[in-house]
Structure to design on (489 residues):
């Protein structure tokens, strides 16, 4: 295929959002996967292809480098850049399943600083359970004795909890039976099981251009590839998403058509119906991440994808959790899917852990009714924590900008800098742990953003903003004003 033919094929495929070199790399990758550029075929020289596509030579160089990293291209002596065969692809593919430093999990794994010395805002979670009933985590003696009389093994989940989850989803309009539910060790394991069972090396997963960092790490760890689709202030753009899925034909699509992470946007009902209509036409596994649905601050809890009046969509896997809405220490999540998928996921889970701890599942069964739309007190407390953070940032850091979210646990905050990584060490020196915004994007978007959680109590959030104000002034070499100390020279 010469450069003119490639240019014509790329033009027919259309353009996607994100860095231009990644758009070019992904388009070339699809031509290779489709067999339109054959194994051993020599690609045009970078300068010639750049001229035909009317892009810079650097864009083509970066695209070729990306395809070499994916194992799609190799450089042969005397032959130039050619499409790699299977043996060459296996030889050049570099794989490291361990997540890098600088992500949202560092706060859990980093033991360098004692907890009481740092306000850790790298991960988003609810701190404490003081707002829940005092006996929430106490198991009735008779119920516990009954559980102890058995083996304690429930690989698919504690039956009473599976029933409660199925009943909750059915009340929301997604008809669900107990055998369509699998209990997992949090939503992270639910995602890991779904992706592992659905994605092979080099397979494609479509995600929103800003998404949950955990799914990015999972796909990379399984040697999959990520393709992004645009979002706006209400969530994913359904028309552009459908266009991308029809074009790239991914094996998995991961979406948050509920409460979005990191922006906190809530999907409108009309867009949800439109999404269900296009999902019904796809031949791909769609993950509906409902982890944050109970953290809806303003408005009703979003309905599941495919809820009434539609029939359940067989290609949709719904994922949920108690970790965000109740307490992360429970480590109880779940998957809702058709019976055949649940059986497959359960067998895969059994290889990992043989089942989620029974005590946590029993507690979750008792607590689940509180999570339905949140207890009124938890919702009030969530709003208070959000508003405390919003007020403090507007007062002490007015040059930072953000939209107030209707749900979730985070503010998506834009700083007037090109890359917030420059600021993060200053924040750390003042005792605040932060993760850069680009951990939420496979394409490196959000470099000028921070995901600032508000799951801590209001007092800790105000303390964190005081420290951030000092750190911001320190970086800019100017006086700082804090809530407690006034102006510091």
């Amino acid at each position: 295929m010469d450069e003119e033919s490639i240019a014509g094929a790329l033009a027919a495929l259309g353009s996607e959002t994100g860095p231009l070199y990644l758009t070019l790399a992904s388009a070339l990758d699809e031509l290779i996967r489709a067999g339109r550029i054959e194994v051993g075929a020599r690609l045009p020289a970078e300068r010639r292809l750049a001229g035909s596509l009317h892009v810079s030579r650097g864009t083509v160089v970066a695209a070729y480098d990306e395809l070499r990293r994916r194992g799609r291209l190799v450089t042969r002596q005397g032959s130039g850049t050619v499409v790699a065969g299977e043996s060459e692809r296996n030889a050049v593919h570099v794989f490291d399943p361990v997540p890098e430093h600088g992500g949202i999990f560092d706060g859990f794994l980093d033991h360098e600083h004692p907890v009481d010395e740092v306000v850790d805002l790298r991960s988003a979670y609810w701190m404490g359970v003081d707002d829940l009933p005092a006996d929430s985590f106490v198991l009735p003696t008779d119920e516990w004795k009954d559980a102890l009389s058995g083996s304690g093994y429930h690989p698919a989940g504690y039956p009473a909890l599976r029933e409660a989850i199925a009943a909750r989803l059915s009340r929301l309009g997604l008809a669900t039976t107990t055998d369509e539910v699998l209990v997992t060790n949090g939503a992270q394991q639910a995602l890991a099981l779904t992706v592992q069972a659905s994605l092979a090396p080099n397979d494609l997963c479509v995600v929103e251009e800003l998404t949950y960092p955990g799914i990015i790490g999972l796909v990379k760890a399984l040697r999959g590839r990520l393709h992004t689709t645009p979002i706006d202030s209400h969530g994913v753009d359904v028309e552009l998403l459908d266009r991308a899925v029809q074009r790239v034909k991914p094996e998995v699509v991961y979406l948050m058509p509920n409460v979005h992470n990191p922006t906190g946007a809530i999907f409108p009902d009309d867009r949800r119906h439109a999404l269900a209509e296009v999902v019904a036409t796809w031949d791909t596994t769609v993950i509906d991440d409902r982890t944050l649905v109970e953290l809806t601050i303003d408005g009703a809890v979003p309905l599941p994808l495919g809820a009434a009046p539609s029939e359940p969509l067989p290609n949709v896997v719904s994922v949920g959790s108690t970790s965000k809405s109740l307490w992360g220490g429970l480590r109880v999540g779940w998957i809702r899917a058709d019976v055949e998928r649940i059986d497959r996921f359960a067998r895969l889970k059994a290889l990992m852990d043989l089942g989620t701890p029974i005590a946590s599942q029993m507690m979750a069964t008792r607590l689940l009714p509180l999570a339905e739309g949140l207890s009124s007190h938890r919702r009030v407390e969530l709003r208070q924590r959000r508003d405390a953070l919003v007020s403090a940032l507007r007062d002490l850091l007015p040059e930072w900008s953000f939209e107030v979210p209707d749900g979730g646990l985070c503010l998506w905050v834009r700083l007037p800098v090109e890359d917030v990584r420059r600021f993060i060490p200053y924040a750390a020196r003042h005792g605040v742990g932060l993760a850069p915004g680009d951990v939420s994007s496979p394409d490196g978007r959000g470099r000028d953003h921070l995901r600032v959680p508000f799951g801590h109590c209001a007092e800790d959030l105000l303390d964190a903003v005081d420290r951030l104000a000092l750190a911001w002034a320190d970086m800019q070499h100017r006086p700082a004003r804090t809530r407690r100390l006034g102006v510091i020279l």
Summary: The chain is about 40% helix and 15% strand. The first strand starts at residue 73 and ends at 76.
